[in-house]
Amino acid sequence: MAKAPQSLEEYYAIHSFAAPVDIKKSTGHFNVLCLDKHLPEESKPVPFGRKDFFKICLISGNSTIHYADKSIEISGKALFFGNPLIPYNWEYLNSQSGFTCVFDEAFFQDFGRIKEYPVFQPAGHPVYELSLESFAHFESIFKGMEAEKNSDFDFRNDVLRNQVFQIIHAALKMRPAPFTTPAPATAGARIARLFLELLERQFPVGGAHADAPLRSPSEYASQLAIHVNHLNKSVKEALQKTTSEVIMERLMKEAKILLKHSSWSISEIAYSLGFEGPTHFGTFFKKQLQLTPTEFRKMGMRTITTSI
């Protein structure tokens, strides 16, 4: 079975610092931590996987971010955005310094649509490499958050929310995403967004004997209660790809994640993704990547032992 996303309780349980008293509050959870005070080597190993919370990290030091089906090398200073939809892990290559803040969606209820920002979208880029000047700017915001978190100001949570948006907006100004400017809210755009949300909800898969993810445009159209032609037209207009192409790309991404970060056999992965068997899966995989699943797994095998 696929591992459930790491909860906030599990996150704090495996680190050397105690969980804050407000972790169960109905107003949601927010915390900011200075890595100079909570060194990574003091923490227990954390496996690659999804987290049930958002995370923004400001890091100085060499490291590798394993994010979905990619590994991103960081040399120096960087800003990282992690979201509950994408499995990830941060592998330290030397000592690290900086800050990390964690929060759940409930903390931003009725205060902006945090998960709709490009930095938290599955297709977005999670890593922003920083100059010394940019690092200093973000560091000042994180230090302000740390001071605000520890203050007794009645409205400190509103200040913290605004500081998170400061970080997001500053990052987007550095490297605007193609969809930073909202497109007109047409009926087709709304259908495409609903389709992508439904597609993401198919993962992680539960194993060879669990229900496989939806595979065809008609299955998605049925779930969305629209005609398949309407879905196909909306997706093509919004994403410049066919519905089938988007589905197959997402299946391919999940296949690479499972091959790289799970101990499942090729057959278990094939059946869990809805293929008729390992042969059909192998043909699909090689057509997309010019490698067999076994070849890809051998290339990507490495032990991940730590995470922020």
From TrEMBL:
Residues 189-299 form the HTH araC/xylS-type domain. GO terms for molecular function: DNA-binding transcription factor activity; sequence-specific DNA binding. Keywords: DNA-binding, Transcription, Transcription regulation. InterPro entries: Homeodomain-like_sf, HTH_AraC, Tscrpt_reg_AraC-type_HTH. It holds the Pfam family HTH_18. Gene3D superfamilies: Homeodomain-like. The keyword Transcription applies. It comes from the Bacteria. PANTHER family: ARAC-FAMILY TRANSCRIPTIONAL REGULATOR, TRANSCRIPTIONAL REGULATORY PROTEIN. This is AraC-type DNA-binding protein. The lineage of its organism: Bacteria, Pseudomonadati, Bacteroidota, Chitinophagia, Chitinophagales.
